[in-house]
ABC transporter ATP-binding protein
Amino acid sequence: MPEPLLEVSDLRIRFGGFTAVDGLSFSVRPGEVLGVVGESGSGKSVSMLGVLGLIRTPGAEISGKVVFRGRDLLTLKNAEMRAIRGREIAMIFQDPMTALTPVYTIGWQIAEQIRAHEKVSRRAARDRAIALLGEVGIPAPEQRVDAYPHEFSGGMRQRAVIAMALSCNPALLIADEPTTALDVTTQAQILDLMRRLRADHGSAVVMITHDMGVVSEIADEVLVMYGGRAVERGSRRQVFHTPRHPYTWGLLDSVPRVNGPRARRLPTIPGTPGASGQGCPFADRCAHSFAACAEVPPLTGDSGHLDACWLPEEKRTR
Ligand SMILES: Nc1ncnc2c1ncn2[C@@H]1O[C@H](COP(=O)(O)OP(=O)(O)OP(=O)(O)O)[C@@H](O)[C@H]1O
Ligand SMILES: [Mg+2]
C-alpha cells in the first residue's frame, strides 16, 4: 500500500458555538478516488475548505492535522499555501462563480491559472486553455475562449471551472459537487476526464457528491459523513455491498433505481442533522437507537471498513 498523499487527523472546525466538523479523520492515497457523501449540512464542503486553508470567517477555530506530502498544511503561511493550491492541489468549488471573476474572459482566467504556476508564453497558455475547454465539452472552444463568465450557461461555467482545475495536472483534485448541475452526458464526460487525470498523472481525487450513482461509478473508497463526523468509511464494495451504519442504509435505500431519474439532492431521511452535542449525532433519527447511543461511538472496524455505531454485530444488516 503506498503512503497516503493526504492524511487528515482529528480535524475540527468551529464557528462561534457551532461545531461544523467534529474530529474528522481520513486519508487519500496517490491515484485513489475517494467519494465523500452525506446529506446537506453534514460538513462536506467546510471540511475540504478547512483542508485547503480557505476558511475566512472571522473567529473560526480550526484544529487537527492535515498532512500533505509530509507537510502539515494547517501550519503553513498563506503564501506557502497559495503555492500548493492550484498547482499540487486543485479545488472545484460547489458554486462555480466563486472561482470565476466576472470581469475577465474565461480563457484569460484559465491561461492566468496556468501561467501562475508554469513558465509558458501567453500564446501557449491560451492554446492550452482552448484545448482544455474542448476537453470539458465546450463547443467551438476557439471562439468561446474569449467569452465572459456571464455569457456562459451555468453548466458551461461549471465545465470552465473544471478545465481550470485540471490545467495544472494537480496531484490531488478536490471536487465539490462537480457534476450536479450538468446533464447526464456531460456528467459522464467529466467523470471520464477525472479518470484520465488519474490514469495519465496518477492524481488522487476527492469527490464530494449527493449522487450515490456517481460514487458507485468512480470511487475506490467511500467516506460517509454525518453531523461533521465520519460515520462510515470503506472501499466502494464494502460500503455498497455490506454497509454497516444505519445512516448509510438510509442513503442507499434512497438511491433511485437503475434507469430511474437521478436525484440532485439526496432524498432526506426523516428529521434533520442533529447539532453535534452529546452522543451519537444520528441517534434522534435512527430507527435502531438504544441506551448506548447516549455516548459518541468511535470509528472502528477491520480490513479498512470502519464505522461509528454501537449496534451489536447481529443487528448490522440492512
Ligand atoms: N462560514 C461559516 N460560518 C458558519 N457556519 C458555517 C460556515 N460554513 C458552513 N457552516 C455551517 O457548517 C455546516 C456544514 O456546512 P457544509 O457547507 O460543509 O455542508 P455540506 O455538507 O457541504 O452541505 P451541502 O451538501 O448542502 O453542500 C452547516 O450547518 C453550515 O451552515
Ligand atoms: Mg457543500
